[in-house]
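FAQ

Q: What does a record look like?
A: Structure on top, sequence underneath. For example:
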């Protein structure tokens, strides 16, 4: 289950934002991290099997004011029930077209000596 976690962190400068993003990216199951919010004080973490409480606990060791804003499930854009379009050209691997071979002519007549020689 892929989920998106938004965490409010009191970050004052770009260096602290970079460190907070690095700490969040190292957490187990995180696939992407971004900074959101009007004052750029929220981390948006997307991942599979991320523990938000553990993530907040790790961030609280470095930053004084850390809160979970929301946790929501990310829905996949493509549904599993939809069929994929077939490829534009379908080639069956078991069928092989042999190149044209001219048929052989077998002659039962004996060879006649040439009259010119």
């Amino acid at each position: 289950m892929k989920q998106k976690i938004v965490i409010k962190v009191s970050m004052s400068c770009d260096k602290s934002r970079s460190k907070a993003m690095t700490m969040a990216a190292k957490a187990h199951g995180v696939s992407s991290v971004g900074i959101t919010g009007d004052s750029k004080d929220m981390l948006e973490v997307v991942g599979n099997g991320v523990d938000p409480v553990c993530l907040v606990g790790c961030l609280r060791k470095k930053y004084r004011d850390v809160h979970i804003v929301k946790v929501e499930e990310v829905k996949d854009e493509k549904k599993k029930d939809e069929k994929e379009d077939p490829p534009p050209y379908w080639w069956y691997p078991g069928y092989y077209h042999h190149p044209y071979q001219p048929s052989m002519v077998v002659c039962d007549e004996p060879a006649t000596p040439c009259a010119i020689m």
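Q: Is there anything notable about this one?
A: The CA atoms of residues 6 and 44 lie 5 Å apart.
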